[in-house]
Write a structure and sequence with these properties.
- The chain has 14 helices and 10 strands.
- A 6-stranded mixed β-sheet has the order 2-3-1-4-6-5, sandwiched between helices.
- The chain is an alpha+beta fold and 403 residues long.
- The chain folds into 2 domains: 184 residues, Alpha-Beta Plaits (2-Layer Sandwich); 211 residues, no CATH class.
- Strand 5 and strand 6 form a beta hairpin.
- The longest helix has 33 residues.
- It is 43% helix and 13% strand.
- Helix 7 packs antiparallel against helix 11.
Length: 403
């Protein structure tokens, strides 16, 4: 039951009598708007909410819908909403409600409905991921506390997806409970055209740029001891952690504390996104600055694109310790597949602030289209050339000042 299907079915509203004949039950269009409003309020105020999706044989059965709606309206609060999720499922929106509270409501409704069988999927926003990597993820948590920043670095990617879809038996006879992830509601599938574009583009680039790959590899081996490639955990689409590939540009024993403190400062002060290498990062070995300014170190990410972990165009994948600093609304950037270039890179990049970068990323996730991707790619090369020329000009200025 993806949100994309939810939206596609809006065209059926006028022909669907169930969306208009039951008092107190919102139509799918109205209910979708209420859900999006609640998410926006949650992002702004950093409170949580739960969303229940019920299947009780409502399709083509107005009497069952009226009975269930009557029980619901007497049980829920005035701030809660009832509406159609799709043609077969009714939804209940529960602001300021934890997963435990939502589960309690579902069980209570089952008791009041008597012999009528119910199945219920519980969604909680934001997901209450457990901080311990060894703990099971996706289970219904009893905590009512919504974290101010969302911890993504220790989330198990494969196990979380499996556990979140598990169905568990409720002690209430006739009720089947399962836990869903809010990404199923708000994140659309990667378009087919985008995946095809990424495969063709990354394969073509890997073949055409293979001489540059070889040259960079030789330079790295000549000037620094250690491996040619550098792999690092990054946070991608839906908060899943993956390993990114880059050409190594730092000494083998480089400490990440310097970069972590720099990022934290940028986020806290919301100042321009100055790169550490622009501040003479001592961890970078000779000639690596040139590679970084020309973005040659990022070429191996074409492998990530080919594997489907990244896209040619999208938000830059952040490091887990950066994600831990995010406010709730900023996690919306994870709704898009991360990319090698994006709106932020071609709209000022290091001259923008952290919040401006996040807003560019969220704007891209909402406006993603084939022609937008083409436009960003066409603007990327001039943007890189402009950065290189600016670095050269700054170098000349510093040299003149020293003389």
């Amino acid at each position: 039951m993806s949100f994309l299907r939810f939206r596609k079915q809006l065209g059926l509203l006028a022909r669907d009598p169930l969306t208009r004949t039951v008092d107190g039950v919102r139509s799918r269009e109205e209910f979708r708007k209420a859900l999006l409003r609640e998410r926006a309020a949650s992002d702004r105020n950093e409170h949580g909410f739960s969303f229940l999706v019920f299947d009780g044989g409502f399709a083509g059965n107005p009497a069952a819908v009226r009975d269930f709606a009557d029980v619901l309206t007497r049980r829920i609060r005035r701030i809660d909403e009832i509406g159609w999720f799709d043609q077969h499922h009714l939804g209940v929106l529960l602001p300021y409600t934890s997963a435990t509270g939502a589960k309690t409501l579902a069980q209570d409704l089952c008791r009041k409905m008597g012999s009528s069988p119910l199945s219920c999927t519980i969604y909680t926003y934001p997901d209450q991921w457990l901080p311990d990597e060894g703990a099971g993820s996706g289970s219904i948590s009893g905590s009512d506390t919504m974290s101010r920043s969302v911890s993504l670095s220790k989330r198990k990617t494969s196990d979380a997806d499996q556990d979140s879809a598990q169905t568990n038996t409720s002690p209430e006879e006739g009720l089947t409970l399962s836990r869903g992830r809010h990404e199923e509601l708000f994140t659309n599938p990667v378009p087919t055209w985008k995946r095809a574009f990424d495969i063709v583009g990354s394969l073509t680039a890997l073949v055409c740029l293979s001489p540059i790959f070889l040259l960079v590899a030789i330079v790295i081996k000549l000037v620094s001891r250690g491996p040619i490639f550098y792999k690092q955990n990054r946070v991608g689409r839906d908060g899943k952690v993956f390993r990114i590939w880059k050409f190594r540009t730092m000494c083998g024993d480089a400490d990440s504390t310097l970069h972590q403190n720099h990022l934290s400062s940028l986020i806290t002060r919301d100042s321009s996104m100055t790169k550490l290498d622009a501040l003479r990062d001592p961890r970078i070995f000779p000639f690596a600055n040139i590679m970084r300014r020309c973005y040659l170190d990022e070429l191996p990410q074409l492998i990530n694109v080919l594997r489907g972990e990244m896209s040619l165009v999208g938000p830059r994948p952040c490091i887990p310790y950066e994600a831990q600093e995010y406010r709730l609304w900023q996690t919306q950037r994870f709704e898009a597949l991360p990319g090698m270039t994006g709106l932020w890179q071609v709209n000022g990049k290091n001259k923008t602030t952290f919040k401006e970068m996040i807003r560019f990323d969220i704007a891209y996730s909402r406006r993603c289209s084939f022609w937008l991707d083409v436009s960003v790619l066409l603007k990327t090369v001039p943007a890189i050339v402009g950065e290189i020329l600016e670095c050269v000009q700054n170098g000349k200025t510093h040299q003149t000042q020293r003389e």
